[in-house]
Structure formats: C-alpha cells, structure tokens
Design goal:
Layout lengths: L1 E2 L10 H12 L10 H21 L6 E4 L2 H14 L6 E5 L4 H12 L3 E5 L9 H7 L4 E5 L13 H9 L4 E5 L11 H4 L3 E5 L10 E5 L14 H4 L7 H39 L3 E4 L9 E6 L4 H9 L3 E2 L15 H5 L4 H5 L1 E5 L6 H21 L5
Parallel strand pairs: 1-11, 3-4, 3-5, 5-6, 6-7
Antiparallel strand pairs: 2-8, 7-8, 9-10, 10-12
Length: 382
C-alpha cells in the first residue's frame, strides 16, 4: 500500500500505539478521582498537556483538550462570539476548513454578520480587503494557518497586527500546519489556535485548543469541572496520552522528517510535471506546507484517477476528506479562480513523516500510464 493522503488522516505511529496500549489495558482510572489510580492518570494527562504547550511556546494552563480539530474550531469561534454579545461580527477567509465555514454559517442564522476574505490565485488572503472589513463590531477574525487542500501558509502575523490595533481577537486553525512547521503562539500573536492529533500520526478523537491567558471565551460543552470548567466530560485519557507522545515524536525527529518530506515532495512534483502533459500545479510554489501538493489534470475527472490508483493500492484525495462525499466543486478551488472543469480534475497528494522513497517511486511509475489511458477514453477535449 502507498498512502499519500496524510492531510485526511495519518497512520498511527507505532510508538504512540505502544504508549496508548498501557492506558487502554491497565491504567483505567478517572483523572478526576482523588484516589491513587485516578491521580496517577491525571499526572500523565498533565504531562501530555505540558508537552503540547511547550511545542507551541505556550504555558500548560493555556491548552484545553477537545474531541477533534473541528470541536476546537467550534469552541474557539462560538465561545468568543458568545462572550461578546455587544459585538456581532465575525471575519473568516473563503478557503477555511468546513469546521470554520459551517460554524460561520450557523452563526449567520443566529444574527451574526459574517464577512468572507477573498484569496488570490495562490490561495493567500487579501490583507487590504481584511483591513477594510474590520469594524467596531468585529469580535473575532479566524484565518487558517495553512490550507488543507493547497498547503498555502497565511500571513497570520499580519492578520494579528491589523486586529490588535482594533482590539480584535484572532483565531487560527493550525490543524494542517502543526507538526510540519515551527509554531510559536507568542511570535504569531494569536489568541486561539486549533490542533488535532490524528494529523500528526496520533489517534483520532482528540484535539486541543490553545486559549491565550485572559482571553474572554465561553465553554462549548457544559457539565463537570474537567478542563478547568471549560470543556466538560471525562477526559479521553488514552487519546490524550497518544497525542502527547505523537508530539514528542515529532519534536524529536522534526528536522530529519521535514527534510525527508521536502525531498520526497520535490521529487514527486518534478516527476509529475516532467512526465505528464497538461498539468497545473495549484497553490504557492514556496510559501506552503511542502508535503501538500495539488494538481489539476486537464481533460479528466479526478475521481477517475483516484479510483484507478486505488486499484493499485495507491491512495490520494480529491480534496478535504470532510467534504469529499459531496458532488460540489471544492470551495477552495473556486476561491482561487479555477474553472469548474479544472477543479473537477484536481487531485490532492499529501505526504507524511512515515512515507518513503519507494512510495514516491511506485506512485510515479503508475500515475503517468493511468492518466494516459484515461485521456484516451475521455470525452473531454483538451
């Protein structure tokens, strides 16, 4: 199997699985319990929180565990808007993940004004438009750190500079950038930042939200006193432990892994562009997450390429896994100005730290022939 869809999810790191198994089999105590088996588990949860905080340049009490990156986004946006009843305006970009876009759509139905910042052909937000969109009623700006389909990295520091002048809070969805590039919340200047475990070879079902100390925000889930009364519900102990271990593995191997992924991505991109005609690369050439590559294959439906690759046990994507079961053209590809026929012929290939040179060789051996055969039978003129 050649797995090249790491932006959708990543295989569990064996070291993470081993660490989690202890808490699935033996350490079953509730972290809220006062007796020893509960306190022992709480200590391990605290250590995972500390590991994640250090990786972000944050302090431990600024990290709140959630059930996913999607929940983290909801928590950040709805929590801030609820905490600012005197301000009823939210600003997001047109290429946000559905977790942000659909939350914004929900808030619109509740009477919140939502402004959408456009992007250029590379997927970079229009800062002038953003600046002109800010008003005294703006409570929050939510701009993703790196796009999940294109890999384009957004100028978050510039966003923060515009916002802070007006006393506006800034949230960034860093689910696709966390673990792939250095993130320091102090240097970025953001007030809230979302991350997820299963994008970094950790387990599914656990995410986290960084909330800068002093940020006014209401809880999303009410109940018990877990997460300092900000996120009720018994902690997903094994998931949190796995999250912490995944972050530890990334920190330990980041330099080597990043160089490897950059090399493999460069090889893959060059191989496609040299061996397949009528291909368009989408996204920024340099200012992007290197392991994310997005190509439009003229004259073809991407789904046909995907299914042909799947018969060879090679797995890629046509876009966000959260919206891939719909027939609509990606809102991200629409936003960067692709024509519908270009968007429908677009594949996303995303590499991870566990990919190998052999994976790329196999992919490049199979893809050109698949594209050639499909074009021979395609009714679309190129």
């Amino acid at each position: 199997m050649v797995y090249l869809d790491n932006n959708a999810t990543t295989p569990l790191d064996p070291a993470v699985a081993e660490k989690m198994s202890l808490f699935l089999k033996e350490h079953f105590g509730n972290p809220s319990s006062l007796y020893p088996i509960g306190r022992a588990v709480k200590d391990v949860v605290t250590q995972a929180r500390e590991t994640i905080a250090q990786s972000l340049g944050a302090i431990r009490t600024e990290i709140f565990f959630t059930g996913s990156g999607t929940e983290s986004d909801n928590f950040a946006i709805r929590g801030v808007m609820d905490a600012h009843p005197d301000k009823n305006e939210l600003i997001v970009s047109k290429i946000e993940h559905p977790a942000v876009i659909e939350t914004a759509n929900y808030l619109k139905k509740k009477g919140i004004t939502v402004k959408y910042v456009p992007v250029d052909s590379y997927g970079t937000i229009d800062l002038d438009f953003l600046k002109n969109s800010i008003s005294e009623r703006t409570a929050l700006i939510s701009i993703m750190h790196a796009n999940n389909e294109l890999g384009t990295i957004q100028p978050i520091k510039d966003v923060v500079n515009l916002a802070k002048d007006k006393g506006i809070l800034v949230h960034t969805d860093a689910v696709q950038s966390f673990g792939k590039i250095d993130i320091d919340v102090k240097k970025l200047g953001v007030d809230l930042l979302s991350i997820s475990a299963h994008k970094i070879n950790g387990p599914k079902g656990v995410g986290a939200l960084f909330i800068k100390k002093g940020t006014p925000i209401y809880p999303l889930i009410y109940g018990g006193a877990q997460e300092r009364e900000m996120r009720a519900g018994t902690e997903n102990t094994s998931g949190i432990v796995g999250f912490g271990e995944a972050v530890r593995q990334i920190q330990e191997h980041r330099e080597t892994d990043n160089k490897k992924v950059e090399h493999l991505a460069s090889k893959l991109k060059q191989g496609i562009e040299e061996n397949i005609p009528k291909v368009k690369f989408n996204g920024h050439e340099k200012n992007r997450i290197h392991g994310t590559l997005n190509f439009s294959f003229y004259g073809l439906e991407a789904e046909a390429i995907l299914l042909a690759l799947a018969t060879k046990e090679i797995y890629v994507s046509t876009g966000s896994a959260c919206s891939e079961d719909t027939e609509e053209v990606s809102h991200v590809l629409n936003a960067i100005g692709l024509r519908p026929e270009e968007a429908r012929g677009t594949l996303r290939i995303s590499l991870g730290r566990l990919n190998t040179e052999e994976d790329i060789d196999t992919f490049l051996d199979e893809l050109p022939e698949i594209v050639h055969k499909l074009r021979e039978i395609s009714a679309i003129s190129i």
